[in-house]
Write a structure and sequence with these properties.
alpha+beta; Histidine-containing Protein, Chain: A; 4-stranded antiparallel beta sheet; 3 helices; globular; HPr-like; HPr; Phosphocarrier, HPr family; cytoplasm
């Protein structure tokens, strides 16, 4: 299990299209992705678009992303998933302004 904290950088926050981008990336990996908005106690399945949208994270808010694999052989896959999501959220800003 590995986790990171990312900050929403795009102006419109976490709406339908960014939620779908996150879920699509998560589905590529054989790792469970849990997402929690910092300050709230609800954990969302990162492969569920509607669940991600319910978080309603705005620009500047932070998310805890946790990759959980069934075995230790998937640690590299956990790292790749979280790094790809960090790139999408903080660097590429969901390809928005």
């Amino acid at each position: 299990m590995k986790e990171i904290i990312v900050e929403i950088k795009n102006e419109q926050g976490l709406h339908a299209r960014p939620a779908a981008l996150i879920a699509n990336i998560a589905k590529k990996y054989n790792v469970k992705l849990e997402i929690e908005k910092i300050g709230e106690n609800e954990v969302i399945d990162g492969k569920n678009v509607m669940g991600i949208m319910i978080l309603g994270a705005a620009k500047g808010e932070k998310l805890k992303l946790k990759a959980v694999s069934e075995n230790e052989n998937s640690i590299e896959e956990e790292n790749r998933l979280l790094e790809e999501l960090r790139q999408l959220i903080e660097i590429d800003k969901f390809f928005e302004k």
